[in-house]
Write a structure and sequence with these properties.
With about 300 residues, this protein is an alpha+beta fold. The protein is about 20% helix and about 35% strand. It binds zinc ion.
Length: about 300
């Protein structure tokens, strides 16, 4: 067991409207793989969709609860406001050309911490950033680069990330009245970066479609997760017991700025209940819902993946 620092992001979970446009955007435009099609364990009449790289590796996983009747949400202070993917070395101009050819709107590029960034909106308005990196990869995108947390006060969250998670302060930038403090996990895992953003703009967030529900960080195994649980509790945060999420074990707590954090284990992973080659193709249900599979399949809208 090693517990010196959290290696990076495990997954990000967001809320969307109807599932098909969401599937089209993430498997089509962004070329992610639908690695798991299951249901919201607390509301089995709703999907829980997972996108990632071929294997659904930690640091590449974006998940959605698509609520057909979700009203539009809006990010604000106390919420995660964007997720960013790493564009592998040499691919950034190609991405911009390809998006332009497909008539997909994006903003930028702007320079942030010395790297170019463009911003897209997914079909529900969620902010998706593509960040130029020097990483090499055969994939179109190399998993997450970062998440941005929108906070009224950066210090308490920064302290949690440095003192408990073992993240390093990478300095701050100020652009148009928006302060951005960058923290990063040591090492070269995917998704090491967390940007803390403070804006002078008066704004109140509202949960709903197009907003991020929580950000999950990685624990290498169950013992390491328990050690992190102890560390988070010792730092004065109220943290849940370990919850079995079928593909990982999870603990949750609210960080001081208001964003829901999770720490999720790398094992057992997405090939736990179906072969790697056919991940995401059939509806997977946890044991407690297999008995009502017929009813669940009748209420879920059919979806078709591009990849
Ligand atoms: Zn989660």
């Amino acid at each position: 067991m090693t517990k010196t620092h959290i290696p990076g992001i495990h997954h990000v979970t967001a809320i969307s409207g109807p599932p098909q446009p969401n599937v089209d955007f993430y498997t089509g435009t962004l070329q992610q793989r639908l690695v798991k099609k299951t249901v919201n364990f607390d509301d089995p009449g709703t999907y829980h969709l997972y996108y990632g790289d071929y294997a659904g590796s930690p640091g590449t996983i974006l998940t959605f609860f698509p609520f057909a009747d979700a009203g539009p949400g809006r990010a604000g202070p106390g919420m995660a406001s964007a997720y960013a993917y790493s564009v592998p070395a040499g691919q950034f101009d190609g991405w911009m050309e390809s998006l332009a050819e497909q008539a997909i709107d994006f903003e930028g590029p702007v320079e942030r911490f010395g790297k170019r960034v463009i911003t897209l909106r997914d079909p529900d308005g969620a902010l998706v950033e593509l960040v130029e990196t020097t990483r090499t990869s055969d994939d179109a995108l190399d998993g997450f680069h970062s998440v941005t947390l929108w906070l009224r006060d950066l210090a308490p969250t920064a302290k949690l990330l440095t003192d408990v998670f073992g993240y390093e302060d990478r300095g701050s930038e100020n652009m148009n009245g928006v302060e951005r403090l960058r923290l990063a996990a040591p090492g070269d895992a995917k998704g090491t970066v967390v940007d803390l953003m403070r804006s002078d703009a008066p704004s109140i967030g509202r949960p709903g479609a197009g907003t991020i529900h929580h950000v999950a960080f990685r624990a290498e195994d169950n013992d390491t997760q328990l050690a992190w649980r102890e560390a988070v509790a010792s730092a004065g945060h109220s943290v849940t017991p370990v919850i079995d999420r079928q593909y990982f074990n999870a603990i949750y707590f609210r960080e001081p700025g208001g964003v829901l954090f999770e720490i999720a284990t790398d094992p057992p992973g997405f090939a736990h209940d179906e072969p790697l080659e056919t991940l995401g193709e059939s509806l997977k249900l946890p044991a407690q819902y297999e008995g009502i599979r017929d009813r669940i399949e009748r209420v879920l809208p059919p979806i078709k993946s591009a990849a």
